[in-house]
Amino acid sequence: MSLSVSRLKALCAVAETGSFAAAARKLGVTQPNVSQQIKKLEQSCGISLFSRQNGQLIATPFCERASESAAQAIQHHEAFETMLKHHGNLAQGHLSIGLGNAVPGMELISKFNKAYPDVTLKVATGSFRKIIRAVLDQTVDVAILPDIPKDPRFRRKVLLNNRVVAIVPVHHRFASMQGLSCSDLLSERLIFRSEGSSTQKVVDRYFRSHNVQPAPLLKLDTREGVYEAVAHDMGVGFVWKTGTGRTEDVQQIDLVDGETSSAEVVFAPKDRQMEVIDAFFGCCVQIKGSARLPGPFPSAGLTPQLAAKGRL
């Protein structure tokens, strides 16, 4: 049985108007078109839908129930068409965004929202691995993550350069230092992120460059867990420089004798052609470089302050 929308509309129109001619005028089609649609419906159902009384088509009890269901089906179909039409546009569209770091992602989202206030936003946060998976299965439309490799499946744009730093409690003996070396870190208990974290990938790379593989006191799934553990003086943790603005109970300190920087990248599948994604990438251009981080340290791996103290 073929139940096209045009056939359902013909059924409702004839039931409402009582004639093929009036139904055709209502629908903007020819009278033979309407009568043919009703004939095919009756053949499919094996039942008469209308009876003639005084030159008017009267819906049978079955037809009355069928036309009510048909009207609901048409309404749902039109709502679905509207949703498809508006999804992804800048008038009444939707955009879902995946974030690994709340900052600087929220700055970009804020700029987009101010520029396109009619777009409904949904933000998902999680580990590097979780957000990558969400982009690939299209749970999110676009994402912002550090250290995204060039991949032919993605369109990408660098938002800014970021780097991993150590964090310690504000009363810690390291808190007043401008930078920490690998040997400094190895003298302390360490708190790592779990596997799949972009932060931990950089930390592992840093220690590998020094030919060491320290065993952490804790491995935690979330950035917030690392902050809480550090704030409670359980050890030295690691976060992205722009990962948060939290400063009341922890102090960020740069790592001075290794490379911990990475590009924060906006990316989306190339095959997702949505007006809202294009606009989001456009806002990325507006803030690129606005979140200014301190420049790289001298090649010897020392901050000017440490060099002045003769700390080698």
Question: Could you walk me through the main structural features you see in this protein, from its secondary elements to its overall organization?
Answer:
The protein is an alpha/beta fold and 312 residues long. The protein has three domains: 5-85, Winged helix-like DNA-binding domain superfamily/Winged helix DNA-binding domain (Arc Repressor Mutant, subunit A, Orthogonal Bundle), CATH 1.10.10; 94-159 and 264-287, D-Maltodextrin-Binding Protein, domain 2; 161-261 and 297-309, D-Maltodextrin-Binding Protein, domain 2 (3-Layer(aba) Sandwich). 41% of the residues lie in helices and 22% in strands. It has helices at 5-17, 20-27, 31-45, 61-86, 102-115, 128-136, 182-186, 198-208, 223-231, 275-287, 304-309, and strands spanning 50-53, 56-59, 94-99, 120-125, 142-146, 154-169, 179-180, 191-193, 218-220, 237-240, 250-255, 261-269. The strands form three sheets. Strands 3, 4, 5, 6, 7, 10, 11 and 12 form an eight-stranded mixed β-sheet that branches. Strands 1-2 form a two-stranded antiparallel ribbon. Strands 8-9 form a two-stranded parallel sheet. Helix 5 (102-115) links the parallel strand 3 and strand 4. The chain is rod-shaped. The N and C termini lie far apart (83 Å). The relative contact order is 0.14. Belongs to the LysR transcriptional regulatory family. It comes from Pikeienuella piscinae.
